Amino acid sequence: MHIFVEKIVGETVEIVNEDFFHLARVLRCRKGDSLTIVSLSDSFYVQATVASINKHNIIATINSKIEKPPKKYPQIILYQAIAKKAKMDVILQKAVELGVSKIVPLITKNVVPENPNVERWRTIVKEASMQSRRVDIPVVEQPITLSEMLKQKPATCMCLVESGEQRLDFRDYLEGLDKSVQQLGVVIGAEGGFTQPEKLLFLENNVAAISFGENILRTETAAIAALSVLKWFYKI
Asked: Residue 166 pLDDT more than 90?
């Protein structure tokens, strides 16, 4: 079992609130069970054993400390146009499993109007991090507009995943990048794609348009495909 805590101090760890409920009520954790507990603010995680299960907490005894592996580069930032609820859930889960460092939800012209629940997205990302046994939790930022994203442009390099013959092949794009690039942003549009004015914005900001070929990909397929290629190419 794999959980996250803010900090680990001493030889025991107290597990409370939603993590306690998840372990005790959902996973039916028992005394003597093994836990992997990751400290979000330290450079290590621990292997521990459940010592006691109480009414409102679990106490685990630390058996060993393990240093977290060094971060791999480039760090991948997913700029994802907000999708419908079920599709957005899948995108978030798979992005975590495929090693993304940060997720920035985008508000574009073709986004289906909804009230985005960022806290829910963060919960999904945390649970996916636990399930995939990551030693970190990717950041999920507040939704921003395309103009705001391009103005900030925090990633060293950015590419836009599109369909069509006139786009740059993804493999050719990656092979042409500087090998020391620290961050790579991948931009995925909504179901209806990007409008012509939005595409012009990308062009004006030197965002490369790359392609997987002629077939039009759904937004969740495009995100998963792009991140899968990056995980393989960079061994992240």
From this structure: no
